[in-house]
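Here is the promised in-class demo. Please do not try to memorize the tokens; focus on the logic of going from shape to residues.
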């Protein structure tokens, strides 16, 4: 049977429906990998609903120029010799493949924390490609916004008059929020910590359960 690390390497094949008995056997007994497949599947389904945009004029030229600066793509011979015939620029196969891999990787990976890049630096090939994408909020951002809307509707309900009942009603939500804040601080300091990233996703799901319970009419009647 596969372990979690081995299963992670074949997650894409599982999501695409490929036959992999050992992977499915591991998935049936591992809650963590079940959660990962469920969330990645949700991201992929949400990505299919996003509108497609045609790249702007000059995108391929900017991608190729950025890749040449980084040494990812050799400089064409006609640009190195003076007086030679300059051929018209066209999209290179490697640039097309790089763009495709960037888009595919962005759809199935977890959202990562990004630090601002100083404007004085020249744009990299990745930054040029990313600048062409539609600035839609990520799946994680939309999910967090949904939780905030549910939380606002719950908190809009009249609070219990007795202080001990009000504290009892707010305690689960405050506990989850405190754990989320601590985990986000950990991720801000160590962005490569995958365990912390998985824990943050689990905490958001737990918060959704708490908010759902708090919005139940039975819970509201008892708390009041």
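The designed amino acids, position by position:
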């Amino acid at each position: 049977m596969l372990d979690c690390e081995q299963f992670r390497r074949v997650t894409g094949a599982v999501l695409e429906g490929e036959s992999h008995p050992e992977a499915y056997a591991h998935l049936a007994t591992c809650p963590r990998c079940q959660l990962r497949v469920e969330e990645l599947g949700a991201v992929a389904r949400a990505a299919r609903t996003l509108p497609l945009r045609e790249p702007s004029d000059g995108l391929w030229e900017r991608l190729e120029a950025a890749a040449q600066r980084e040494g990812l793509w050799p400089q064409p011979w006609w640009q190195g010799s003076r007086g030679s015939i300059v051929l018209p620029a066209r999209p290179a196969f490697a640039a097309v493949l790089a763009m495709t891999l960037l888009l595919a990787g962005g759809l199935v990976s977890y959202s990562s924390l990004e630090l601002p890049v100083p404007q004085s630096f020249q744009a990299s090939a990745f930054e040029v490609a990313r600048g062409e994408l539609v600035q839609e909020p990520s799946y994680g951002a939309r999910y967090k916004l949904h939780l905030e809307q549910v939380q606002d509707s719950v908190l809009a309900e009249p609070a219990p008059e007795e202080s001990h009942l009000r504290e009892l009603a707010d305690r689960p939500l405050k506990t989850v929020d405190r754990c989320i804040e601590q985990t986000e601080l950990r991720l801000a300091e160590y962005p490569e910590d995958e365990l912390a990233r998985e824990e943050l996703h689990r905490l958001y799901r737990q918060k959704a359960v708490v908010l759902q319970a708090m919005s139940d009419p039975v819970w509201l009647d008892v708390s009041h």
